[in-house]
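I'd like us to work through together how a protein chain folds, taking it slowly. To get us started, please write out a protein record for me. Go ahead whenever you are ready, and we will take it from there:
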Amino acid sequence: EFIKAYGAIKDNCDSGQFRAIQKAGIYAMKHPELTNNNKIKYSRRLDYLVSALKEIGFEATKPKGTFYCYVRSPSGAKNVRFNSATQATQYIIENAMISVVPWADAGEYLRFSVTFEAANEEEEMAVIDEMKERLLRLGLCFE
């Protein structure tokens, strides 16, 4: 009975988030300036990203609650046709060295992220401009 009771207590203590993460979350909730700065940074980056994706030909809209932007996968590039978002992802990685994630649960989509390293707004713009130029060189098709 002791081992069974100990197992029940241990099971409840071990489930859930690691205590340090819980404490960090509590601290962040008590200090909204920490999350507000991140919110501003990611919102700005998403503005840049959505603008760049539109210039390339993607139908992009700014998400309201994440640092990911999902867009329909292109149908091809120059003389290449894509049958799936996975094929488009592979092509983009191999030919532009840009990592995107395929998502096919609700159609063929690509996931772009704004979680890259940049020290300031100027570097953020440079990262997204570089991504845009690389993608433009691929001659992506959207049919």
